[in-house]
Structure formats: C-alpha cells, structure tokens
Amino acid sequence: MLILMIIAPFLCGIVFKFLIPFLEGFISNKFGVSKILTPYFRTLDSFLVFLAPCLICIVASFLILEEFDDKVSPYVFVTPIGFSGYIFARLIIPAIFAFILSFIIIMIFNLSGISILLGIILATIGTLYAIGTTLVVVALANNKVEGLAVTKLTGISFLGILVPIFVEGKIQILFFLLPSFWLGKVSMAKETTSLMLCALAGIGISFIWISIFYNKFKRRLG
Q1: Numbers of helices and strands, H then E, in the chain
Q2: CA-to-CA distance for 89 and 60, rounded, in angstroms?
Q3: C-beta atoms surrounding 213 within 10 Å
Q4: 27-59 burial, b if ≥16 CB within 10 A, otherwise e?
Q5: CA atoms within 13 A on the CB side of 189
Q6: pTM of the model
Q7: How many angstroms from the chain centroid is the CA of residue 148?
Q8: CA 19 → CA 5, 23, 32, 104, 158, distances in Å?
Q9: pLDDT tens across 163-207, in order?
Q10: 191-210: b or e for each residue (b if 16 or more CB lie within 10 Å)?
C-alpha cells in the first residue's frame, strides 16, 4: 500500500501536467476566449502539493489505529522510546519523506511555473496540514472504521483552499482556522510580503492543530 501511495502522486502529477493544459486549450477554443483555467493554475498546484503528504499520512494514521486496536502501542509507550518517540517514528518520519516527495512532485509537474521558494512554502504548509489532520483522526477515532469516517470528514476541510477564489471580502475570516485556507491564500498572493504573511499564518495555524490534537491523543492514551 505504501508503494501505491508513493506512485499515486506521480501519476496524478502526469495527469495534471498534460490533461489540464489540454482542457484549457479545448475549453478556450470552445468559448472563444484566451484563457479560462490559467488564472487558477497555482491553486491547482496547491491541490497537487497536498496529495503526497495526505496519502502518506493517511497510511500512518491507520497504522497507528491498527496498533491501537491490537493493544501494541501501550507496550511501546513504556519503553525508552516513549509516546513522543512513537509519534516521531510513526508520523513525523513519514511526514518528512512526504515533504520531500511533495516538493519533488510540485517542481516537476507544476502548471504555474512556481519558484523553488514557493514550492518549499507550499510543501511545508501541505505537510504540516497533513500531520494535523492525521492527529485529528487518531485523536478522535477509536478504531479503523471510525478512522475512515473521520478521515472523510477532515477531507472536507481541504475545501478551504477554494475560499480565496469564490468568497470575497471580510467573510473570508470565517475560514482562518483552516490551514487549507492559507494554502489557498498563498497560491493567490501577488506580492512577496502578502505571500510570506499568508505562509506564516498557514504554518502557525497548522501548528495549532498539531498541538491541540497531539495533546488530546496523548491524554486519551493516558
């Protein structure tokens, strides 16, 4: 399954790289306009950058839940590795790998010609967001069945990336607690200052998610 989760983002990247520009040309010719999808290429890149961390962290969350179901994890917690070491091995190491994979994919298959700096920023927010949603799953679900349901619910939160496109004005503030919202804001930023502020906000909100649900999961096991 892990190999499939690694291959899948590359396959999606190939589809993104070749199918979407083809659709842009087809739709533009159909309606007689110069471009329709092009202004949203960077937002589409944001979806792509989140794919690898999302898939890999989902595998990590189900591995944690499986070990929780099998009563394996409590025995690990009393070893020198402890709870923090367990989370590092089961989640942080896969997330680091996911970040590297995400950065490689976005730099190869991006549609908007993004810079290395922007690629790092998007991959960072996407990976931290994936860690946060994984901790939501393991903190709230009691087993793999519940984990699947919670995973689907947390997936809805990723729609926050579309808010900067379809929602205008101050009402956007209602979505500021979603890391995906800031991922969307970064993708739409026109100036470096705005981009960096949105990036810092996205990273900060992601760490809030991580802190809250890490502690909730730890208390639940305690």
Answers
A1: 10, 0
A2: 10
A3: 20
A4: eeeeeeeeeebeebbbbbbbbbbbbbbbbbbbb
A5: 23
A6: 0.89
A7: 17
A8: 21, 6, 20, 19, 23
A9: 988 888 889 989 999 999 999 999 888 888 999 999 999 999 999
A10: eeeebeebbebbbebbeebb
